């Protein structure tokens, strides 16, 4: 992946500093000159955090990094202590400017690109689709997430603080989520995440989202139907038929009333009929209230019973544990008052003086008791759930009756206020009731579509689940196919051993063997004898200098592999203080050997990879090299070899 630093411009309180980068940029000199600050500010512009030195705390305002990517140059401007960056780039005759988050995504900021933060933009301008990996390595149904450019940069920027303390977060003491991400990066470079795997994972993500949306819709529809007291289309249609039959009966009553009026027969007044209906509904409500109260009392009783059973089960387990601990204890001193216990008679407990009947705990009996308790707890939980469902139905019935009774009382009051003729009051009341029944039927007819929609959603969910299962099977096969070819992994082992030997790491020879387990990707070096299990790894090396070289060689080997297999790893390698724990004079062979390795690779295999080197001393390259090297000697207070902030003197 083309990823080349061009310039770093620093905005200071009293001026500006511009630092150019070439094929190999070498910063060396005394401590306190700002060498490490240069690469840390590069990382800061790429979305990293930074702990400002006293000089930067006093003078730093902002930094601008110019990058060369596959689709053109990119300017990244990041002010001090800002979590956002301002980026500029050009495409053809058009120039683009954008303000976006440095790390935390806040939604798409560049339409139709999927760019949500700086990492996405770097991938997009590099013409690379961000790799996707599973969040959980245990759950087969785990969602996938994108690896960010920050994850890949772990293998492109070897920070001075962690160069001898952490092996790319692959160590067992690294946080779990960082360890998994680092493994994913190695797998990505090796080729275990191929395009087919990425495509299937992307399809699975879409199906997962669709499945969750369908499940939410189904739950909402089922809850809405349950609240109105219906759960199927047949139940609704049956209720509608009953309402229409009631409307016909009311229409018949109206016709009979008219016939009676024509025959001048006496008719019962509507207020009297409504009073009888209200009284009947009042009786039904009283029965319902009593049933609800009885059901709640039963619930309270069963709930207390459940809590008591859970408490007794816990106490029983604790007593078993205590008995298991104390059964083999021979008390000589009273555990309460610390006095010497008297000698017991035969068969008596030494502590309480009673007949000793301590017996070993029977595991079978304990398991039976535990199983019975669990069964009873499950049974009580189911009973409580059924009580809750019955209580809900009773409460819904009560609400319906209350609404009906309220309507009847209102009509009765209106009838009493008018006190029309018996015929007129009866007809008006019956007409009102008939209109209410027809309106309820119409409302239910509108609801009748919901159960059908619910079934359609369930059928669609079943299709999505089946399709998801098929994709999981395909994904498993694709992963196995990608991981079955271990040639790239074997090549990485060869490259790593080659780097270790050429860098002059003490104790490593060409005859040694490198093992990189696919479960951890934590490299280990063994001797040539297969029976010799002595292992050299980042965890077993005691020398800080060897740790540093070990880590640097692995990063270089990974970059060599990326070039060989065409993996989209940024073609940038920043090494801050490879000789951090090594004396350039006492360990001259390692000092010259490591930089000779870097220069040879920069002229050959890694000629397209940009190196930024920071160290105490300068290792000159051979007289004839095929790359452009710039070296900057930095010393505080030296005008000939100025530090990063030339005017800063600590005041």
Q: State the helicity in percent bands.
A: 40-55%
Q: Count of helical segments?
A: 14
Spans with pLDDT under 50 lasting ≥5 residues? none
What is the count of structural domains?
3
| Rounded Rg | 40 Å
User: How much of the residues is beta strand, in percent?
Assistant: 5-15%
CATH superfamily of the largest domain: P-loop containing nucleotide triphosphate hydrolases
* SSE-based structural type: alpha/beta
CATH topology of the largest domain: Rossmann fold
Q: What is the number of beta strands? A: 16
Major sheet: size, sense and barrel closure? 6 strands, antiparallel
- SSE sequence, one letter per element: EEEHHEEEEHEEHEHHHHHHHHEEEHEHEE
CATH architecture annotation name of the largest domain = 3-Layer(aba) Sandwich
Strand arrangement across the biggest beta sheet = 2-1-4-5-6-7
From the N-terminal CA to the C-terminal CA, the straight-line distance is 43 Å
What general form does the structure show?
extended
CATH first level of the largest domain: Alpha Beta
Mean model confidence by pLDDT = 82
Topology of helices and strands:
Elements (H helix, E strand, L loop, with lengths): L3 E9 L2 E6 L3 E6 L5 H11 L8 H6 E10 L2 E8 L4 E8 L2 E8 L16 H8 L6 E3 L9 E3 L2 H4 L4 E2 L17 H15 L4 H33 L5 H30 L7 H57 L36 H56 L3 H26 L1 H36 L2 H16 L10 E3 L8 E3 L8 E2 L7 H22 L6 E5 L11 H16 L6 E6 L13 E6 L17
Parallel strand pairs: 3-15, 3-16, 10-14, 14-15
Antiparallel strand pairs: 1-2, 1-4, 4-5, 5-6, 6-7, 8-9, 11-12, 12-13
Helix pairs in contact: 6-11, 7-10, 8-9, 8-10, 12-13
